[in-house]
## 1
Amino acid sequence: MGTTSSRLPASRPLHGHTTLLSARQWWGAGLLALLLAFAWLVPWLVDADPARQQLSRILQAPSLAEPFGTDHLGRSMLARMAAAIRLSLGMALLSVATAAIPGVLLGVVAGWRGGWTDRLLGSVADACLALPGLLLVLLLAAIAPGNFWTLYVGISLVLWIEYFRVVRARTQALVTSPQIEASRLLGFGPVMLFRRHLWPELAPQVFTLAAFGAASAILAMAALGFVSVGLRPPTAELGLMMIELLPYYHEAPWAMAQPIFVLFVVVLSLNLLAGKDPR
């Protein structure tokens, strides 16, 4: 007699998905790797505190001593750019992980069970969608302004809905597939079916949503910082740096351009890594 695993129908992709990254995604991964290397190597290679003020070195142009120059308070732009990238990617990773876990689990439950469970969870998601995402984050930021954890909770509450909707729709389409029907007839439970059949199909879409969600989280944090309702000085955050350097645009355009360029590259790398929109 064969083992349990040998009796389970093969877990080959149901619709021909491939695990290989496209050329576009490799470009995104390469850009993201460069950003990560820059953000984490700078503190080891350069002895510069992103919050240390040197008023005798205000708005210095890039030089050998300060490759990225200094800001309006004499702080090292090199150190601040590296710190801002670490903060943005850290927030994005934390928010995406917190949103993905309940979003995927609730989406699978709704799609698998159907009936009143699907209607109830769908109604909760629709109610959350009734309030614009950025407005929800703004409301939470107004309760505790300048707090990292408030932004994290608000962004996570917005992101989970996309995981839920995409995973629920995909699960509803997959549960009637011949492979899953055959596995059910053999007596295998939901956990085994999820691990063997559902997750291999859902994983590429969850990965794509995670990359898009990370880009959205970074843009949201930068937007809140730019309108002065996000994090507070002297935090090195891209949106906050833009609004701080805006009055010095004519005097030091290279300083103002740096957070804008970094934000563009970070979001571009994540969008390239995401590939196609799964919706």
## 2
Amino acid sequence: MKTRLIDPTAMAVKDLHQYILGAVAPRPIAFASTVDSQGIPNLAPYSFFNAFSSNPPVLVFSSNRKVKDNQTKDTLLNIRETGEVVINAVNFAMMRQMALASIEYPAEINEFDKAGFTPLASDLVKPFRVAESPSQMECKVKDIITLGDQGGAGHLIICDVVRIHIHEAVIDDRDRIDPHKMDLVGRMGRAYYVRASGEAIHTVFQPVTDIAIGFDQLPESILKSPVLTGNQLAEIAALTALPSANALELLLSEPDIADFLDQEDGYHALHQMAANAIIAGSVDRAAGLLLLADRMHHQ
């Protein structure tokens, strides 16, 4: 496939920024609540953000210098003064309010008021929590790593989580967070956001201790399937073993399958049956059908 070559050193920062945002997406949003040394609140969203450790619990987000004038943001200034922040999650119900808080208000303006959010007192830090957020993490800032001194340069803010608050409504009966109830949103390039719930969520069960056969052990005729997608091939490659000769004989005992072996388009039909079996969750059966098709390929 044809690709576009981009030299980061030969492009305007504003354009490079958009390529990075579009390629590294979706990104979770840290809705960062801080206060200055006088106790004036600030609330702002950051999507250069993720969790980096569970033990100890560590979150990291970046407050970048403004590209247009190389100024640092109020969040960073406040953290340098107080060393504390609350990172609030952003769900779909509060997305537009969050966008209001991203406006560059003067430092003395309270974004809680401007964006219509409810401040809650934290337990262990001074910044307020956002009541509407489904999860609120109180943090002590461990370190700030400056990545540059020009517009667009980041400051990595390394946060030790000291207290977590989660809405009971998003906890399921296994005492885990239900992603559909959490209903988070993520940031993409330009003005695009993504909603992480409903049909956007998929499960991929891949045991990491069971050694999968991998793509390199699949017959060439399967790898070059005229029907299967890369994702479907990966489900076959995730098996710990291909079906045995006895399993193939059981498949051949099914009249419909045996008939395909005598048809001119039987090879393609077996691959289509295999794709349908994968969709239905019968990956072992799909692998057997593909091996039967491989026999036809070599006849």
